[in-house]
Amino acid sequence: MINNRIKLSDVLLASGPWKTKMIKLCDHLLGTPIALAVPPKTPKHNSLPPSSRILIIRPGGMGDAIFLLPILKALRQQDPKRIINVLCESRNAAIFLSQPHLVNHTYLYSSLTDLRTLIKNSYDIVVDTEQWHYFSSLAGYFINSHQTVGFASRPLRKKLFHKAINYDPSAYELENFINLFKDILGATTSTPSIDNSFSLSEDMQSWANNMIQGTSCAISLGTHIPERRLTPQQVTALIGPLLTQHNHVLLLGGPDAMSLAKNITQEIDDQRLLNFTGKTSLIQTAALLQKSNLVIGSDSGILHLSCAVGTKTIALFGPGNTQKWAPRGEKHIVLHLNLPCSPCTFFGYTVPVCHGSCACMRNIDTKEILGKILPC
Questions:
Q1: 9 exposed, middle or buried (CB, 10 Å; 0-12, 13-18, 19+)?
Q2: CATH code for the part of the protein at 202-371
Q3: Torsion over CA of 69, 74, 75 and 80, rounded to 10 degrees?
Q4: Where are any strands of DSSP class E within 221-301?
Q5: Has this prediction a pTM greater than 0.90?
Q6: CA within 13 Å, CB half, 93
Q7: Are strands 345-346 and 349-350 parallel, antiparallel or unpaired?
Q8: Per CATH, is 14-36+51-185 categorized as 3.40.50.2000?
């Protein structure tokens, strides 16, 4: 990976689930020639009408989707009658489906019915929020719209939009998204935060209150990138001291974290340690995070969701880019070792050069973590 440019070898060697890698490989092998073959869009620079039909395309995981929530909120506040639809993947759809006050309809890439409906629809503007790949920009290219907007992160992507927006690979990602929507939202004086951008119903808040009595600290175990995970030793070292300060410690994560959580609960036999890995929906996870007094976790969707529900976090960064993705604000603490090989993630591709040592995560001292939250 040179100068943030993704090569075929990066696609093949990157960490992550095989299904995601296959989609990215298809994008590399098929998206490139299609993008090369189609004629360029004619540039347009006219502004949109006050009330418009907008389609937002957002592939990828939970984190990117959560970073769009402040944008969706601003769009809705600007014009409550505006139609805002989203085209996304099944792995991040729950973010948008859980916020019906912001999104009118959520379409899935995996649904042929949804794709046929989109082809028949017409929009004032289609905004592709993807940062690198071609499939999303090609989808926007063929959907009937007055204007298409997207990131000019690659030369071929630039030709697929009526208006291509510069992408800054070193900027905080929310700033890039604001820049992408600036023609709709107008100039902004400050960058909003993703904090408190995810809304929960009173019923879900009551559910979490019934599940967890008293104070709690949540530890996020899940991430699709193995190099970002805490080790079992790190997690167990945290749990004992945390239980001296809280009534409960929660273990959160998806199915990928269930094995780790099972081993931890077998080693630490304490009823105050509650294992929710693989057992909760996204909306239930969000409610448990909001109920928690603190969340400790590595760069992941759960970490960003914790910020979005307004909970304090200790964010542990290794392969991830703190400049782009780390939580902002006084209520969040970010720990990273600043190793020369870190970050090794660009445009969603994590290609470690450490040959599995993962020192950027494994060398994070749990005493330093606890020192940020426990009294001396």
A1: exposed
A2: 3.40.50.2000
A3: 110
A4: 248-252, 273-275, 294-298
A5: yes
A6: 12
A7: antiparallel
A8: yes
